[in-house]
């Protein structure tokens, strides 16, 4: 460590914090002495690929983003398995669980989020887990080697990926969801119906419009009780009902927090020496759970840490893609629509294809694709750019290949 360079301490060795460090190294290599503290005993890994770790499509080594060697090569002091437990803002020092005390000139909080665990009777039984980290996957794999029945509570992205992974590991899985529409934040009822049939065809049992009221068992969980009184046998229960920003440390240090750590357009907190990025933050009353906005936050935050303070963060449109092998699904924008919008819909039940585009005037504002999602990125760009689709409206549902000649003036006049 240099005696002359300022020190940047990063709390959290996850995707958001380390992406910010990577961007900073590109903009201003050597500007800071950097120290990183992480709660997990690993290098930085890609949480998005945990579902593929569960299915066996990826190994732990294959989902690593930054190995311990990378930190050494970039002169970064990495403290794994040693989370920061206290921030002394007056003295500008942090204290770790293992007793390390370190001063900082700039502090970056990237504590991410914690899985929401329903406050149900029986939630503390062995065999009840979230789906957030490598440890959770290892617990699930251990159960799959020993037991036969699993229940996954939550029919969102993580819940479906967990249920599919456990099924592929040989368990009999029941997926429990409180509404009748799977992925109800990403899909409309038509697309969700196709998804449900696909999952049932894979051997999953679905319990929709079902409310979990308790878990039962002596020492290890043995099953789930629903509001209608029915019981579902389960030796493993995975709660995938969402996440909440991890703001415990920030709140204890006196930083202003609401749902998340409140930051401005530069990702600075109310303390000018402290920045925050990722799922732990709240920007303009919005919190975040997808990777695209977090990457943009990292770029903006890094520019200010690098003293190139010209960038500002603005929340933008996001898109969703399900990571289940053999299921093509994509949604973006306002896919529900309403007053003042029109729908373009293509249904091909034989091929299992459904497409719905929501238009407002001459612009695409939302899209849901199931069974054929190869044009998802193109529709997303039309949404983000607010492009005039008047010349291609009649062929828009057929995808970019059918529409490009009408959008390319050179080809149109050739």
TrEMBL record:
<dbReference type="InterPro" id="IPR050260">
    <property type="entry name" value="FAD-bd_OxRdtase"/>
</dbReference>
<dbReference type="InterPro" id="IPR036188">
    <property type="entry name" value="FAD/NAD-bd_sf"/>
</dbReference>
<dbReference type="InterPro" id="IPR023753">
    <property type="entry name" value="FAD/NAD-binding_dom"/>
</dbReference>
<dbReference type="InterPro" id="IPR041575">
    <property type="entry name" value="Rubredoxin_C"/>
</dbReference>
<protein>
    <submittedName>
        <fullName>NAD(P)/FAD-dependent oxidoreductase</fullName>
    </submittedName>
</protein>
<dbReference type="Pfam" id="PF18267">
    <property type="entry name" value="Rubredoxin_C"/>
</dbReference>
<feature type="domain" description="NADH-rubredoxin oxidoreductase C-terminal">
    <location>
        <begin position="319"/>
        <end position="385"/>
    </location>
</feature>
<dbReference type="GO" id="GO:0016491">
    <property type="term" value="F:oxidoreductase activity"/>
</dbReference>
<dbReference type="InterPro" id="IPR016156">
    <property type="entry name" value="FAD/NAD-linked_Rdtase_dimer_sf"/>
</dbReference>
<dbReference type="Pfam" id="PF07992">
    <property type="entry name" value="Pyr_redox_2"/>
</dbReference>
<feature type="domain" description="FAD/NAD(P)-binding">
    <location>
        <begin position="7"/>
        <end position="285"/>
    </location>
</feature>
<comment type="similarity">
    <text>Belongs to the FAD-dependent oxidoreductase family.</text>
</comment>
<keyword id="KW-0274">FAD</keyword>
<keyword id="KW-0285">Flavoprotein</keyword>
């Amino acid at each position: 460590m240099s005696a002359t360079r300022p020190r940047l301490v990063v709390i959290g060795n996850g995707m958001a914090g380390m992406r910010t460090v990577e961007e900073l190294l590109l903009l201003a290599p050597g500007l800071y002495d950097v120290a990183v503290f992480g709660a997990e005993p690993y290098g930085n890994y890609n949480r998005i690929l945990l579902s593929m770790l569960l299915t066996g499509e990826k190994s732990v080594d294959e989902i690593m983003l930054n190995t311990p060697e990378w930190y050494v090569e970039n002169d970064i002091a990495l403290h794994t398995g040693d989370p920061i437990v206290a921030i002394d803002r007056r003295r500008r020092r942090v204290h770790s669980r293992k007793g390390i005390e370190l001063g900082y000139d700039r502090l970056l909080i990237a504590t991410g989020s914690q899985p929401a665990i329903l406050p149900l009777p029986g939630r503390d039984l062995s065999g009840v887990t979230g789906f957030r980290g490598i440890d959770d996957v290892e617990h699930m794999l251990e159960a799959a080697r020993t037991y036969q029945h699993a229940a996954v509570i939550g029919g969102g992205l993580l819940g479906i990926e967990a249920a599919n992974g456990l099924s592929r590991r040989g368990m009999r899985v029941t997926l429990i969801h409180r509404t009748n529409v799977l992925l109800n934040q990403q899909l409309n009822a038509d697309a969700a119906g196709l998804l449900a049939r696909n999952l049932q065809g894979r051997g999953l049992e679905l319990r929709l419009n079902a409310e979990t009221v308790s878990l039962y068992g002596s020492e290890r969980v043995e099953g789930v009780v629903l509001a209608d009184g029915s019981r579902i046998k389960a030796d493993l229960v995975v709660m995938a009902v969402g996440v909440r920003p991890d703001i415990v440390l920030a709140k204890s240090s006196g930083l202003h927090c609401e749902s998340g750590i409140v930051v401005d357009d530069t990702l600075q907190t109310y303390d000018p020496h402290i920045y925050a990025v990722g799922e732990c933050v709240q920007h303009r009353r919005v919190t975040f759970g997808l990777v695209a906005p977090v990457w943009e936050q990292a770029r903006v935050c890094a520019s200010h840490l690098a003293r190139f303070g010209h960038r500002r963060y603005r929340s933008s449109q996001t898109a969703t893609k399900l990571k289940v092998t053999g299921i093509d699904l994509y949604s973006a924008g306002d896919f529900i629509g309403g007053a003042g919008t029109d729908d373009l819909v293509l249904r091909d039940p034989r091929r299992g294809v459904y497409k719905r585009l929501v238009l407002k005037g001459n612009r695409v504002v939302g899209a849901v694709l199931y069974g054929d999602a190869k044009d998802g990125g193109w529709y997303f760009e039309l949404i983000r750019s607010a492009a005039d689709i008047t010349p291609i409206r009649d062929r828009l549902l057929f995808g970019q290949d059918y529409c490009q000649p009408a959008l390319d003036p050179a080809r149109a006049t050739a």
